[in-house]
């Protein structure tokens, strides 16, 4: 990682440069042996934890905690960049990370950086999708690039968005078939894909556990494991939430926090 002392001229972000110097001091003479032993893989659990703590601070809207947790996540970015800079093959630096991100932001946001700026939301989304499609033109599936390590609820909602994307681009016959499988097709973002919004807000949108749409016969139902039946029920709930423009993952976090409060209240009464 570049030494901040090598930079010349006035800097508008002296504390950011000081942070780079602090991170750089972990390596070399007088550095930290634990730090030097870390790899991208060993740091994953810390990044996961720090990100979860940042999400909690953001949802609590606590400025002091947000500032602290943003710093922890920023340190993870610097840590990974520092590790990458020491590689032989495939090495890159923080400058490379910043350059690639800046280039991508400019490329994907022609409504800001292009010759014809616009503040029309529908046009902004269309331009962003077009720009991203050009970048990902070598992908063979809309599922390419979807991280499978997301939580199950968040991944389900992500996949539902991909399902709508396919339904919006295939032939009418295939789209109709996709619609027959989907209990509800859309959420707020789906409107920008040309799909009709059909929020159900009703338990009728949730199929009977273990029964696929268009599938009949007890034998087929009996062949499905109890966990898969439960998974299908949960997916139907996520689909219904998505149709109403709700974040299923955040909803689960809110419910968990409510449960935590009830448990703490019960402990207080017992004590």
Model description:
With 271 residues, the protein is mostly helical. It contains 12 helices and no strands. The chain has helices at residues 14-24, 33-37, 44-60, 63-85, 94-108, 110-113, 121-135, 152-169, 172-181, 218-222, 226-243, 248-270. The termini are far apart. Mean pLDDT is 78; it is low at 4-8 and 178-211.
Number of helices: 12
Percent of residues in beta strands: under 5%
Radius of gyration: 24 Å
Note the quaternary state here: single chain
Largest sheet: none
Please give the number of β-strands.
0
Average pLDDT, all residues: 78
Helical residue percent band: 55-70%
Can I get a quick summary?
This protein has 12 helices and no strands.
Topology:
Layout: H1 14-24, H2 33-37, H3 44-60, H4 63-85, H5 94-108, H6 110-113, H7 121-135, H8 152-169, H9 172-181, H10 218-222, H11 226-243, H12 248-270
Helix pairs in contact: 3-4, 8-9, 8-11
